[in-house]
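hi! just following up on the protien thing from before. the input was this:
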Amino acid sequence: MSSIAKGKKAIRFLSFCLRHSWIAGILLALFMILLIMLAINGGETSDPAVAEAPSALNISPAVEAYRSVVEKECIANDIPECVDIILAMIMQESGGSVPDVMQSSESKGLPPNTITDPVESIKVGVAYFSKGYKKAKKEAKVNPKETAIQGYNFGSGFIGWSIKNGGGWTADRAVEFARIQSNGQKRSGGVRDGQYAYGDQLYVQHVMAYLQPNVGENGGAGSTKGGTKEVEKAISTGSSIVGKSPYVWGGGRSDVDIKARRFDCSSFVRWCYSEAGINLGPVGSTTTDTLVKKGKAVSKKDMKRGDLVFFDTYKVNGHVGIYLGDGKFINDNSSKGVWVDEMSNSYWSSTFKGVVRRVTN
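and the predicted 3d structure came back as:
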């Protein structure tokens, strides 16, 4: 009830009681106390604090827990509009898995992971980002936000260089800057195979992927249904640990690992289908190389919910996930652990070569 309504009700009650003079003095005193209390409370009675709803973005619970700290530092650095961007950067930098959550030690000229306090990491990281963001916002003719984001990874020199050479960030300029800084040397192996050996030339695309809307409850498997009973059970099993299970190379090949929900990509897929009653291979020796031989090959234009999708990451068919429909797949990857990703994401689309296997009828 609003303060106005409460006041009118109290006045009507007071008028009635004033006709009974023997209690007029007492009621007048009580009425004055009520008005004073309303004024102190800003015209409303106090209610218990209501926690702000968690982000609907593609942010894990571990990183979402830092939202209040990020908000404080963004306000202190006059960039309150950048809270979600910072959270997305934390997702890309660490997923919240190490104390130096923003990997900001290097911005102070220190060795990686020197900072051991997450709050200090955010404080340093936000301050560093804010300088580049303000410069890009003021001077960049195109993509100021993206210019600042890439500058956090490449270093502040990229911001001035990209503004001078075309007005700000573009995907091509990020590649060119990496080529110049690496003297044309490229990486081989790992998730950045083929990139120039300087920073992450796809850093903007990776960060922006976390700013896309979450899919389903807790980043789960979305609303598309219609798979077989086994498919739905496998997907439900995997969805139960989205955002809760970090990637572990070689994990998931013992009862201890499975109980602790420690998987890599292939053991995660095997576990999901094992829980659905479908055996995709021995616990200790299932890999992407064995999974790619299971079931039958399916054209990418015919793939459906529950199919296994393979990606050429550190090797041909080096990564695997379960297709969900609507261009999404659930997987266990080294950046985010168990998560739902978009097939159209620049990294995944560039590494997906159309290898699809159907392991159910």
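The two ends are 59 Å apart (CA to CA).
The longest strand covers residues 319-325.
cheers
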